[in-house]
Amino acid sequence: MTELPDPRGPSYRLPSPPPPDPTGWHELRRRALGTLWPPRSVAWAGLLALAVSASGLYGLWFQATLPGRLPSETDWKAAAGVIAREARPGDAVVLAPSWSERAREILPERIPARPEIPLPILALPSLGPEEDLRGIRRVWLLSLPGAPGGSGPAAVQLTARAGTVEGPMRLGQLELTRFDLKVPFLPLWTLPDRLASASVEAGGATVAAETREVRFLPRNCVVARWPGPGLEPVVIRLKSIPLGVGLTGRAALVGDSTGGGSATVRVQVDGIEVARAEATPGRPDGEPLSFDASRLRPGVHQLSVEIVPSGPLPRGVCVDLVALP
Amino acid sequence: MTPGRLIALGWAVAVLAVAAATSPAVGISRDESVYVEAAASYARFWPEALRDPGRVLATADRRYAPNHEHPGFTKGLFALTRTVLSDYLGLTGEVQGSRAGAWLLAAFLAALLALWGCELAGPLGGALAPAFFFLVPRNFWHVHPAVLDLPVTSLMLATTYAFWRSTSASRGRLSTAGWAFASGLLLGAALGTKHNAWFLPPLLFSAWLLGSFRGRQQSHGPASEGAVGTVRGHRFPWALVAMAVLGPVVLVATWPWLWHHTLPRIQGWLGYHLHHENYPWMYLGRLLREPPFPVAYPFVVTALTVPAAILVAMIGGLLQSGARIVAAWRGRGPAVSIPTEWLLLLSALFPMALIAWPTVPHFGGVKHWLPAMPFLALLAARALVTTGRLLWPARAGAVTGALAFLALAPAAWQVAHAHPFGTAAWNELAGGAPGAATMGMQRQFWGDSTVAVLPAVNAHAAPGARVWFQETTALAARQYQRDGRLRRDLAVAAGPEDADLSIWQYHQEFRDREFRTWTEFRTARPVAGAHLDEVPLVQVYARPGAWR
């Protein structure tokens, strides 16, 4: 069969002449691409050699510089000296990053000028609004600026909460900055502090003011524990107590609560329930308790906190309640 | 002696010497304290059984009852070295005497790596492969304790090596049948060490099966030798037959607990591990408690614990192995043994893939995929040797040597720096221990760091003080006392309520123990501590008056 000629002419084109390349750039590019792609074994070997060399040099640099980025014994002692000299009631130390708890071995545990008053040392991963920093007027931020991974968000968060910032003072590889809080949270009272003067119906439970773990962090609270089969509710009664503008607090299970029982916490003022929270394994940081007391008549009231377990709770329930001024 | 054997011998002696020299600094871990006690009991079995052969089964039941959730072979070796070095010769205490068994198996691992490295990449490969294994800080730590993870790694490597030799042309002095027999015996020893060896025969079978697919490769390489039967033109290896027969025989022979009620006891043993408890474990700020666990876990932890340059070389080795298979399939690698590549590749990846499975318990740092590490080391060594040959053929040794120095020098530094806190070692990508603490990774495990505060406790504890050791077991405390490392007047307390001292070992999941101590002792100020790069590992709290 004879094909008819294409009326539009032949369907092929002659190869176009190479573009003018007076600088030789196109030729160089062609050759470079031809060398690199498809990659040859030697190119892969070069890449591996480069990666091993770079990571090895980085490793050497890291090992060589790490000790110099971390505080020495002298640095710690210098920081402890400054804090011991300057600290006053209402102060606390915040560690950044929060794992730098070696500070607990070195810093004073009490205000040296007033040994009856503790100097709290806080190792918290965050100082956001959820941390009320109760009873604290001034914060000493002790940070490790050179530590791998950084010193965390504490400085920024404290700056947002502070009226005055003094520092940072450099002490070797430590930095010490003082933050005077704009609005210190100074409660009228806290439940753990008032427990000694409260009347407690415990049944088979034990009730005590303790520092215990709630979601990996230390919390001062009233802990009710039911180690045995008796599961009678615990009732804590505080007579003739001022409530201020309100109550705030939290109820949570202590420690690793997986698979354990739960508890209900009820707060009553003058016999009327005003707040309730469930402490359950599903909420390791607990449930808040809150009551607006601004509409109550001024003066003192009867307050009771009832804790009702649903099953054995050998580790206990941590109940925290404070009155807002 | 061939250069390969010389290198292997040199490495074995070096590992043995370094392990013996550095071991006393390493504390007694939780599991180790149990194995040392079990080994002491097993050591009494043989004399008693020989004295009264008629009551051998009753003796086995009594002496092998301790820790019968793990088999008898390696703990039997611990018993043997302890009996010789500690009881007869008096050269060591009971713990170091038991550990000598683990050091021997570490030396065996080093020698095997050197031999196999030589065969894969020449003498330089043989010299480098053990270094790529032992200069990983966590691997180095595992050389010391009398536990089962490094021994089973060693015996699994040995079994795989014997399998490889039985199916390859380079059989050396032993015949195919000889290597097959050896692989059966070695598998038995591995099964007699830890249950993860059960995964080895299916893995070897898979490697052999995959090796039968050769694409366009014309020649049938060495893997077709030493075989029985034919599958798709690829002959079935004798070694697997030997393993099926000899493995269980050696397991039972070296574990007198199984000498009667054999099947129910094997069932109980495997059942225990199939339903193993999920210990809580920190990973990227999350406490892993229940499945499903993150699939990336073993890969992320490996990437953050193996020194970066070694990690890069290992990844290069994995890619090289994969590329060799692809090249051979395409008919471009006539000399490549595809079964060998599959064997190395699967052995390097399977242990991690197994732990990545979301329902498999995730705890214990890298120890559960430690059997992958020797193969990654072999691949890394071969990759660097190949790199040297490709980049500058005339000076290949010098190039490889320079690269090896850059890869191994920072790793050696890390090993020396982290020792004896191997379970707390993190690499430069993690930012070391401080970076890992910031990321919320598990800070340590097994309670061995307590050893670092024992001198302070011995110096300052009030006479007769009661000590709450927490993650360090009461067995370990008594072993420290018998080895003269802890004062004998100190007693073990069960909790902060009846303790004068509390040795808190930082575990996020047990944080409440520390806060209970604060409440009980009315202080949050430790009296002593041990740290790695300022990260607290252990802190000692004392009741007022108990620290002098």
Task: Please explain how this structure is put together.
The complex is a heterodimer of chains A (about 325) and B (about 550). Chain A has about 325 residues and is an alpha+beta fold. Chain A is built from 6 helices and 18 strands. In chain A, strands 8, 10, 11, 13, 16 and 18 form a 6-stranded antiparallel beta sheet that branches. A 5-stranded mixed beta sheet of chain A has the order 4-1-5-7-6. Chain A has a 5-stranded antiparallel beta sheet with strand order 9-12-17-14-15, with no helix packed on it. In chain A, a hairpin with a 2-residue loop joins strand 2 (about 110) and strand 3 (about 115-120). Helix content of chain B is about 60%, strand content about 5%. Chain B contains 20 helices and 9 strands. In chain B, the strands form 3 sheets. Chain B has a 5-stranded mixed beta sheet with strand order 6-5-7-9-8. In chain B, strands 1-2 form a two-stranded antiparallel sheet. In chain B, strands 3-4 form a two-stranded antiparallel sheet. In chain B, helix 4 packs across helix 5 and helix 5 packs antiparallel against helix 16.
| Low-confidence runs of chain A | none
Biggest interface and which pair forms it?
A-B, 50 and 63 residues
Molecular shape of chain B: globular
Helix content of chain B: 55-70%
What's the short version?
Chain A is α+β, with helices and mostly antiparallel strands and 325 residues long.
Produce the secondary structure layout.
The complex is a heterodimer of chains A (325) and B (548).
Chain A lengths: L24 H12 L4 H29 L3 H14 L4 E6 L6 H4 L3 E2 L2 E5 L2 E2 L15 E6 L10 H8 E10 L2 E8 L7 E2 H4 L4 E3 L4 E9 L2 E10 L7 E9 L3 E8 L9 E7 L2 E8 L7 E6 L7 E10 L3 E12 L1
Parallel strand pairs in A: 1-4, 1-5
Antiparallel strand pairs in A: 2-3, 5-7, 6-7, 8-18, 9-12, 10-11, 11-18, 12-17, 13-16, 13-18, 14-15, 14-17
Chain B lengths: L2 H20 L7 H22 L4 H8 L9 H16 L5 H41 L2 H6 L6 H19 L8 H16 L8 H12 L15 E5 L2 E4 H16 L8 H13 L6 E3 L2 E3 L8 H9 L2 H22 L8 H19 L16 H19 L4 H23 L13 H8 L14 H7 L5 E3 L5 H9 L8 E2 L8 E5 L5 H11 L6 E5 L2 E8 L6
Parallel strand pairs in B: 5-6, 5-7
Antiparallel strand pairs in B: 1-2, 3-4, 7-9, 8-9
Helix pairs in contact in B: 1-5, 2-3, 2-4, 4-5, 5-7, 5-15, 5-16, 7-8, 8-10, 9-14, 13-14, 13-15, 13-16, 14-15, 15-16
